[in-house]
UniProtKB/TrEMBL annotation:
It comes from the Bacteria. Pfam families: Aldedh. Residues 15-461 form the Aldehyde dehydrogenase domain. The active site is at residue 239. Belongs to the aldehyde dehydrogenase family. InterPro entries: Ald_DH/histidinol_DH, Ald_DH_C, Ald_DH_CS_GLU, Ald_DH_N, Aldehyde_DH_dom, LUC3-like. This is Aldehyde dehydrogenase family protein.
């Protein structure tokens, strides 16, 4: 039985939660689920642990976090298998996610924000110091349960904050296993892990003893987090939804870019905040691109992520599976489906990779975040018009440009209203480079020095000399 981590103890939940393997649609494990009293215990434990952890020298915190990274690494295969079982992604992608999570932990365990002298001119000395905030809540979604959580825990804990982590209710197990590995290494209360069924988020994000909420999830929930945090003016980082455009320029080589765009749209079964969610292609390349993408979709191996050779696993949960059926209905009603177009006729939450052409910009599939392997391809006649259509979205997370002329693409990238634009690549997220969304894709940064600073208070000490 997977247990909660509260005040250094692995404990049963006041309730229990069944966890479904999306490749079968059947329950395969049961885990602890917290009630409100256990949430209160977790927050109280983190509050009690904060003064000591905050004043523990960085080198000692770093040593413990690096030791934790070693323990996770020693069990990385077990983590990866569990991740595939609860999340659905192919095992090599689960192993890759674990490798990324461990690398993020090591990166921030070695990154210290030291005091800096901002001015020292004989009249005055101004020093900037960075101090931890207090108890931080880390709330994560179900698409990358380990990597996205570690992007919060690693900078949060290395900075001297104490934390309460809460995963999505459909992928709680790897987070609970992570708590188990931390129990013997981190001092009691420094990290607490609770699980809910979408019922404790509101309390956590409004709790007076929580100083900051680091949230990754949908834009709708992000708005609720911001409202809940307002009363006590908590620090918030919001990494929210996206509807990224893949913009193909007229000099692109279809043989090169079609497989890359297909991968950008279908990795993790399209359940990536930064997935390519709509493609804009010049009229001259439209038909060949549609044909190439349709062929890739038809050839893709869709199966249980635990099976060797699987390229695309199931949709993570039933609710998202049902939502994707609505997008498929929209595609059939408003566009021309040239590959896929239906769930697979088998148990589990599988959707055939789907390519849709001749669909208007006004269709739901183009306007909203589908978060699945259903990709609309739109034609354009004028590049400025394509840029305007790509920007005509409430979202502003990422985007890609595909071309044989990267210099030309940089100019185009400068006009795309998002936090990240990749040219001829996708999902390259170096740990030392900040990442964050524009518009309703959120605000604040994760990763890089900026990401680390967000877990700290900047304090200015100004001395008359
Ligand atoms: P979600 O918003 O439904 O849930 C995210 C988390 O919020 C879960 O842990 C959930 O239990 C919790 N939650 C639910 N109600 C809450 C409340 N009232 N207060 C606080 N927390 C609450 O998102 P999801 O469906 O799990 O994830 C998919 C979404 O996440 C997509 O929109 C995707 O684009 C986005 N996402 C964004 C990024 C990014 O970095 N920008 C990364 C991954 C996923």
């Amino acid at each position: 039985m997977y247990q909660l981590l509260i005040d250094g103890q692995l404990v049963d939940g006041a309730r229990q939660l069944d966890v479904v393997n999306p490749a079968t649609g059947a329950v395969f494990a049961t885990c602890a689920r917290a009630d409100e009293a256990q949430l209160e215990q977790a927050v109280a434990a983190a509050k009690k642990a904060f003064p000591t952890w905050a004043t523990t020298p960085f080198a000692q915190r770093s040593k413990m976090l690096l030791q934790w990274a070693d323990v996770i690494e020693a069990r990385a295969d077990e983590f990866a298998r569990l991740l595939t079982q609860e999340q659905g992604k192919p095992l090599p992608q689960a192993a890759h996610e674990m490798g990324g999570a461990i690398a993020v932990l090591r990166t921030f365990a070695n990154m210290e924000l030291k005091p800096e002298v901002l001015r020292d001119d004989g009249d005055c000395r101004i020093i900037r110091q960075w101090t931890p905030l207090g108890v931080v809540a880390a709330i994560t979604p179900w698409n990358f349960p380990m990597l996205l959580l570690m992007m919060k825990l690693a900078p949060g804990l290395s900075s001297g904050n104490t934390m309460v982590a809460k995963p999505a209710p459909t992928t709680p197990l790897t987070t609970l296993l992570l708590g188990e590995t931390a129990a013997d290494i981190l001092p009691a209360g420094v990290l607490n892990v609770i699980v809910d069924q979408n019922d404790l988020g509101a309390r956590l994000t409004s709790h007076p003893d929580i100083a900051k909420v680091s949230f990754t999830g949908s834009t709708g929930t992000g708005k609720r987090v911001m409202q809940a945090a307002a009363d006590t003016l908590k620090r918030i980082t919001l990494e929210l939804g996206g509807n990224d455009a893949a913009l193909v320029l007229d000099d692109a080589d279809i043989g090169v870019v079609a497989p890359a765009i297909f991968q950008a749209a279908t990795i993790n079964a399209g359940q990536v905040c930064l997935a390519a969610k709509r493609v804009y292609a010049p009229r001259s390349l439209y038909e060949p691109l549609c044909d190439a993408l349709a062929q890739l979709a038809t050839d893709a191996v869709v199966d249980d992520g635990a099976k060797q050779g699987t390229q695309i696993g199931p949709i993570q949960n039933r609710a998202q599976f049902e939502k994707l059926k609505e997008f498929l209905a929209d595609a059939h009603a408003n566009g021309s489906v040239i590959a896929g177009g239906a769930p697979l006729d088998r148990e589990g939450f599988f959707i055939a990779p789907t390519i849709v052409k001749d669909i208007p910009d006004s269709a739901r599939l183009v306007q909203e975040e589908q978060f699945g392997p259903v990709l609309p391809i739109l034609a354009y006649d004028d590049l400025d018009d394509a840029i305007a259509r790509a920007n005509d979205s409430e979202y502003g997370l990422g985007g890609t440009i595909w071309t044989s002329n990267p210099e030309r693409a940089i100019e185009v990238a400068m006009k795309i209203d998002t936090g990240t634009v990749w040219i001829n690549k996708h999902l390259d997220l170096p740990f030392d480079v900040p990442f964050g969304g524009a518009k309703q894709s959120g605000f604040g940064a994760e990763m890089g020095r900026e990401g680390l600073e967000e877990f700290n208070q900047s304090k200015i000490v100004n001395v008359a000399l």
